[in-house]
């Protein structure tokens, strides 16, 4: 765990992470996406601790982490949420990978690919957009009251942006098609992490 010095939280470029991994520096790469997204494609050597699991066991996770932690998601939004939670638990220095796992792959980073799936953020955009279109069309052809659906979705998206949360994303992540063959648990995800200070680049692919 980091010392109580001045916090230095930095966005990390994919190229920098590649360099750290090649140099076998002491770091832990944590992917906070869903298990299904992780299965589809992830950085080789990273650990999958989905954001809901991290949120539930933040203190326990923080106790196992060293000072060099890299958080990864699809775009950086969930990784930033994870960073904020870990900061409250004492991890004052963390790195959020710029561009997420796709950005790392695009930069030529070593990734493991599996079954192709839509990422959670893309699913959220599809569902939100579809509901807005449904509300507008229903308001025109069925009943003006249905237009309120578009307003509700807009309000929800505004709230999500303001609070940096996403209730729709959480609901969609629970859908059957977003479940992996083996969902991470406290035992398989958090307790499997290397102890603070140990070399951690040999994580399971």
TrEMBL record:
Pfam families: Rhodanese, YgaP-like_TM. Residues 23-113 form the Rhodanese domain. One of its GO terms (molecular function) is thiosulfate-cyanide sulfurtransferase activity. Gene3D superfamilies: 6.10.140.1340, Rhodanese-like domain. PANTHER family: THIOSULFATE SULFURTRANSFERASE RDL2, MITOCHONDRIAL-RELATED, THIOSULFATE SULFURTRANSFERASE_RHODANESE-LIKE DOMAIN-CONTAINING PROTEIN 3. This is DUF2892 domain-containing protein. The lineage of its organism: Bacteria, Bacillati, Actinomycetota, Actinomycetes, Micrococcales.
